[in-house]
Amino acid sequence: MQSHTITLNINEEIHIVAVKAADTLLYTIRGKLGLTGAKPGCLNGDCGACTVNVDGWPMKSCLMLTVEAVGKKVTTIEGLRETPIQQAFVENFAFQCGYCTPGFIMNCHSLIQQHPDADDQTIKEWLESNICRCTSYIEIEKAVKSVLNKK
Amino acid sequence: MEVIGKSVIRKEAVDKVTGRAKYTHDYQKVPLLSGKMVISPYGHAKIVNIDTSEAWKVPGVRAILTGKQYPLTGEAIRDRPPIAFDKVRYHGEPVALVVADTPAQAKTAADLIKVQYELLPVVNSPTQAFQKNAPLVHERLGEYKKEADSHPVPDTNIATLIKIRKGNMAKGWAESETVVEASFSFAPSDHVAMETRCATAEISPDGNIIIMTSSQAPFMVKRLIADYFGEDMGKIIVRTPLVGGAYGGKAPVQLEVLAYMASKEVGGKPVKILNTREEDILTSPCHIGLDATVKLGANRSGKITVAEILYLWDGGAYSDKAIDVTRSGATDCTGPYNIENVWCDSYCMYTNHPYAAPFRGFSHSELSFAIERTMDLLAQKLNIDPLELRYINAIMPGNTTPTRVRLNKSNVGNLQKCIEKVRGLIKWDEGPVKVLNDRFIRVKGVSCSWKTSTIDTDAPSGVILTFNRDGSINLMSGVVEIGTGTKTILAQILAERLKMDVNKIHVRMEVDTQTTPEHWKTVASRGTFMGGRAVLKAAEDVIHQLKELAACVLRSPKEDLEIANSRVFLRDDPAIGLHFKEIGYGYKYPNGNTVGGQIIGRGSYILRHLTPLDPETGAGRPGPEWTVAAYGVEIEFDKRDYTYRLLKAATVVDIGRVMNEKAAVGQVMGAMSMGLSFAGRETFYFDELGRVLNPQLRTYRPLRYGENPEYLVGFVETPQIDGPYGARGVGEHGLLGMPGALGNALSTAAGVSLHNLPLIPELIWKAKEANK
Ligand code: FES
Ligand code: FES
After folding, report:
1. Nearest CA among B292, B294, B290, B300 for reference residue B377
2. What does the alpha-carbon distance between residue B373 and residue B755 come to, in Å, rounded to a whole number?
3. Domain B458-606 indexed as CATH 3.30.470.30
4. pLDDT tens figures, B284-337
5. Which residue of A has its CA nearest to B488?
6. What single-letter DSSP state applies at residue B90?
């Protein structure tokens, strides 16, 4: 398959990468850019471990082709710097193995930006797209609410 | 206590919230070849022909492993070819392995391999496997190499039988007035760790075999590969970085063997094998299924006098760890009740299902469903409150276990206290049923559990401590950080013992079998206990060395010295002393002369007095202590369509001592979540060809955010005297009672006795219909 050279805006940096048409964004950021914070969990849109933020919205990077990201602003977990939600995850013990954590944090981060006054129903609609197998979700609920309430 | 009990933030927390935490698949290098499996689409079939000619034409293909007999593998019985030969025994079994330059090339080639099968009759349940004329999963069972305490029966599907014979059954039945008997059954399911299993291997020209793997048992990988392939054990170096969830599923050794074989085939070049989610569910070992029959007899006052139990475990196509699970199930077969007369046959059965790994709780959540449902049936028949029935039969110091271990105040927790506490937490005294209207009711169910950890009698754990020049300490232990936070707890134990700031202790997260002291396997909630004992011993060693050196420098008897706040000082005059940074690397006199050197502490621990079980009676000491717990679940049930909502789930566990409050609560809640998911929704659906119909997270659906109940957690602290600061294990216990408690609540709610998992509305409907 043929490679194309494209320009991506990732974490406020411009990257020039050679990709194939069928490469997913997850494959490119992990394999080409070494941004391994986004994780593969199913490659099928079911688990949310690969969630990144595209133009302010959460996106499962296993479901997006790299070429679709051209002209968009992509933020990965590596692009977050000392945000309140990261701190809240630490304080609330909102992870154990940590594998689902980058995906959950990116999802929560977008939620906080899009719906700073999200109610229980909205939080549920957003967060039920990710799976955490270690925690009971209560810890994650506490973490996200602690940030939402502050706003 | 300064540090023990505190909710110290886990050492790797910042890495985990910034995306810097690395798991096996995150390590990349060039070149790194990719291995891709071809897996069996059937449960049981003869391999007639494998055609690889088209696959070889794909550019980048370097090797195809297939059609050859590789050494048999397996822990208790060597019954599993790493790549199927002659026939396949489960859906998902590897039939071929392609090695290519990129994952895409490997996949393209794998898809082009044509395998021709001839279907064989399928063994689709352990009960079917047990029938006289059942098709055989292994025709040559008698010829396999095996461990001394595996007892396969040739020409049957029995991989092993563990017998428990305690007391006098005739006497037990004679003393009983009320008898209940019930059967239970559920199919295998999966662990669903979010990180799918992954392993890489390379062989350097000097013969070193370097493996990186997402495993709970890196030291076992080293041992087994040496054993299976006759390699030099010292040349096998296994690395395990952070592990993205394991729950027992990453204790078996599987992909490591394939990666090693693949690398060998391509001249030692590094090869990575990463499971897709489907392979992780199908090909890699799963969560065991069970068919059980329980018969209990009790006297008029509700005292249980006798138990007769049959467990048929669904070990799947290969026995691997299922034999140990079967043994563990026999060991604690009665649940946490004092019963004088016990007969139990616990069989590990071969079937044409994916083979079983340990699952968090190691047989206990499974058997507990059967026992706890039967306890409720008994309570009903006796007309006794179900919590009361459990209270009066609760196991206690002075009683003996089914394997005849006499319990004492240290080696068993206080179950009656747990029951009392759970009674309050779930407001049991307000009654188990509350009618909201003619459609909805709220119902509670209860259960109890106990668990010892049946592990090898010679299982070791070791710790090394080294000093840095600034007086801080590096802690190295073979415990794998699978998410339980155990390594942070080890740092807390060290900080407590040395009375120092836990932030001055640096924990090495990665395990490397060449330089990290061995911790047998990170399983069975034993990390804190064994690793903790090793830390305490290493701390003693360090204290001794520090005092020895300080005694010389301070010109004082050793006995007058005290250690705290990273200093060694005179007890009666703390101003006179030395900071760790002045002696951790030896003491340098003003003129440059130096005495001592870098202080290196070492400690190791091995469990004492464990014995194998007697093959005829089961008598023996399988584990060090029994942790006990009591549970409650409350649901809101819709009588119209049998759907229900989880409202509350409670666990009270006798944890011995709370080491890290928030971490302990998190472990218990997380385990409850997994237990409710297992009990309420997770299973493999098999068709008549033994195929798993739902090997995806879209169709195999664990609990998600918002589907969880409110969680209530309570602790009782009966110290285990030989545990570090009295602690008992806690990683598994929140899970164990969930299937039983949920089953009991739903049985009460639906007015029909439920005997299967998962407890989905359709199952309840079927039970209701069958009852009409
Ligand atoms: S890997 Fe993208 S949703 Fe699971
Ligand atoms: S922390 Fe392990 S899956 Fe969420």
Report:
1. B294
2. 8
3. no
4. 999 999 999 999 999 999 999 999 999 999 999 999 999 999 999 999 999 999
5. A96
6. S
Answer whether A47 contacts ligand 1 (Cβ < 6 A).
yes
Give the H or E element holding residue B127: helix B126-130
Q: Residue B621: its pLDDT value, please?
A: 92
Three-state DSSP string of A86-116 = HHHHHHCCCCCCCCCHHHHHHHHHHHHHHCC
- The dihedral formed by the CA atoms of A103, A105, A110 and A112, expressed in degrees to the nearest 10: 150
Q: Does domain B30-120+197-274 have CATH number 1.10.3720.10?
A: no
At B713 the three-state DSSP class reads strand
Parts of chain B with a pLDDT under 50: none
Helix (H, G, I), strand (E, B), or coil: what is residue B377? Answer: helix
Q: Give the pLDDT score at B459.
A: 83
The one-letter amino acid at A117: D
C-alpha atoms less than 13 angstroms from C-alpha of B504 in its C-beta half-sphere: 22
Domains of chain A (ranges, CATH numbers): 3-77 (3.10.20.30), 84-150 (1.10.150.120)
Calculated CA dihedral for residues B42, B43, B47, B50, nearest 10 degrees: 40
Per residue in B530-558, pLDDT (tens digit) is 899 999 999 999 999 999 999 999 999 99
Can you tell me the distance from the alpha carbon of A137 to that of B39, in angstroms, rounded to the nearest whole number? 35
- Give the angle B641-B644-B645 at the CA atoms, nearest 5°: 150
DSSP B509-573: -SEETTTSPPBS-S-TT-IIIIIHHHHHHHHHHHHHHHHHHHHHHHTS-GGGEEEETTEEEESS-
Residue A146: half-sphere exposure toward Cβ, Cα within 13 Å: 18
Distance of CA A59 from the midpoint of ligand 1 (Å): 10
Query: Phi first, then psi: what are they for B105, rounded to 5°?
Result: -65, -40
Cross-strand bridge partners of residue B272: B34, B200
- Cα B300 to Cα B496: distance, rounded to the nearest angstrom: 51
Residues in chain B: 772
Token digits of residue B80: 């599993």
List C-alpha distances in Å: B349 to B124, B471, B477, B698: 11, 56, 36, 30
Q: Where are the domains of chain B?
A: 30-120+197-274, 286-455+611-771, 458-606
- Residue B42 CA to chain centroid, in angstroms? 28
Mutate to test the pocket of ligand 1, among A60, A65, A104, A106 (most ligand atoms within 8 A of CB): A60
Whether the complex's predicted ipTM is more than 0.90 is answered with: yes
How would you class A7 by CB atoms within 10 Å of its CB: exposed for 0-12, middle for 13-18, buried for 19 or more? exposed
Beta bridge partners of B286: B356
The 3-state DSSP class for residue B314 equals: strand
- To 10 degrees, the CA torsion angle through B738, B640, B683, B214? -60
Cα of B601 vs its chain's centroid, Å:
30
Q: Number of C-alpha atoms within 13 angstroms, CB side, residue B537?
A: 18
Mutate to test the pocket of ligand 1, among A28, A39, A44 (most ligand atoms within 8 A of CB): A44
pTM, rounded to two decimals: 0.96
CATH code at B286-455+611-771 = 3.30.365.10
Q: Which residues pair with B636 in a beta bridge?
A: B442, B645
Q: Which atom of ligand 2 is nearest to the CA of B194?
A: 3
Which residue carries 């589907």 as its tokens?
B707
**Which of A100, A105, A128 faces B706 most closely, judged by CB atoms?**
A128
Measure CB to CB from residue A97 to each of B20, B25, B482 and give the nearest one. Answer: B482
Asked if B286-455+611-771 and B458-606 have one fold, the answer is yes
For residue A133, report the distance from its CA to the centre of ligand 2, in Å.
5
What is the b/e burial string over A94-133, where b = at least 16 CB atoms within 10 angstroms of the residue's CB? bbbbbbbbbbbbbbbbbbbeeeeebeeeebbebbebbbbb
